[in-house]
C-alpha cells in the first residue's frame, strides 16, 4: 500500500541502536493527517488523494475553503497536499493517516523547502574556486572570472552559473532511513538531515528507489 504523510520538522538529535552506536536523526512531527478529498478520473481527470495537516481556527478559514471542508465533513486544516497513489481506492474521505503508517527500517523520500540564504556569490552558491591572489587578477579573488568572449557571441549564455539567490527552493532527499517511529507522540525519526528549517513543513513518501 502506497503511503505519504505531511509533517513539521522539529530538529535534529541522536539515538542509539541495539549495539550502542550513535545514529544522527531528524525528528518530524508527522500527522495526524486527514483525507479531505479524493480526486477521480471521471470528475477531475486524474486520481489522487488530498490530505490536510495542522488545525486551523474557524475564523481563519475563507468561505470557499470552509465549503470545501464542510463538504468532506472534516475540520479545517492549515496545509493541503495531494498524493498520487496507485491505490487511491483504499483511502476514504475522513480517514486518518498517522505516524504509524511508516515503520522502523523503511526507506522514504522527504520533500521540503530549503533554508533561504539570500544573495550569495559563486563560491558559496556553486562551489567555485578562488582566483589567484597575485598581480593581475583584479581587486577581488571571489568573483566568477570571465563569462565568455567579447567578440563572439558577445553575450552571456542563459544558464550561466552566476551569483544570485541561494536556497528557499523545493528539495527532495531520497532513500532516507526511518530510524524510529513513536506512534504515541506522532513522531518519526529519520536518519540524517532533511531540507528546511526547524518548524518547516515536509512531506514524507515511500522511496521510489528503495
Structure description:
With 210 residues, this protein is mostly beta strands. Helix content is 9%, strand content 40%. It has three helices and twelve strands. The protein has helices spanning 41-44, 63-72, 122-126; strands at residues 4-16, 22-30, 33-39, 48-55, 77-83, 96-97, 107-113, 118-120, 164-166, 170-182, 187-191, 201-206. Strands 1-2-11-10-7-12 form a six-stranded antiparallel barrel. Strands 5-4-3-6 form a four-stranded antiparallel sheet. It has a two-stranded antiparallel sheet with strand order 8-9. 21% of the residues are buried. The model has no long low-confidence stretch (mean pLDDT 89).
| Helical residues, percent | under 10%
Return the average pLDDT rounded to an integer: 89
Main-sheet strand order equals: 1-2-11-10-7-12
Low-confidence stretches: none
Note the beta-strand portion.
35-45%
Structural class: mainly beta
Gross morphology is extended
Order of helices and strands: EEEHEHEEEEHEEEE
Number of helices: 3
Rg over C-alpha atoms, rounded to the nearest angstrom: 23 Å
Amino acid at each position: 500500500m502506497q503511503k505519504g504523510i505531511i509533517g513539521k520538522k522539529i530538529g535534529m538529535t541522536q539515538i542509539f541502536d541495539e549495539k550502542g552506536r550513535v545514529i544522527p536523526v531528524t525528528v518530524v512531527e508527522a500527522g495526524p493527517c486527514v483525507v479531505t478529498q479524493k480526486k477521480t478520473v471521471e470528475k477531475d481527470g486524474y486520481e489522487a488523494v488530498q490530505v490536510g495537516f495542522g488545525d486551523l481556527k474557524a475564523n481563519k478559514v475563507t468561505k470557499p475553503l470552509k465549503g470545501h471542508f464542510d463538504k468532506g465533513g472534516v475540520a479545517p486544516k492549515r496545509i493541503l497536499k495531494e498524493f498520487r497513489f496507485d491505490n487511491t481506492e483504499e483511502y476514504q474521505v475522513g480517514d486518518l493517516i498517522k505516524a504509524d503508517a511508516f515503520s522502523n527500517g523503511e526507506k522514504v523520500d522527504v520533500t521540503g523547502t530549503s533554508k533561504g540564504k539570500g544573495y550569495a556569490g559563486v563560491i558559496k552558491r556553486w562551489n567555485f574556486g578562488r582566483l589567484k591572489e597575485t598581480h593581475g587578477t583584479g581587486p577581488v579573488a571571489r568573483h566568477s572570472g570571465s563569462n565568455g568572449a567579447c567578440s563572439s557571441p558577445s553575450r552571456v549564455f542563459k544558464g550561466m552559473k552566476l551569483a544570485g539567490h541561494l536556497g528557499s527552493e523545493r528539495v527532495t532527499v531520497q532513500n532516507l532511513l526511518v530510524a524510529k517511529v513513536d506512534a504515541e507522540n506522532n513522531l518519526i525519526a529519520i536518519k540524517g538531515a532533511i531540507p528546511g528549517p526547524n518548524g518547516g513543513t515536509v512531506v514524507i513518501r515511500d522511496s521510489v528507489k528503495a
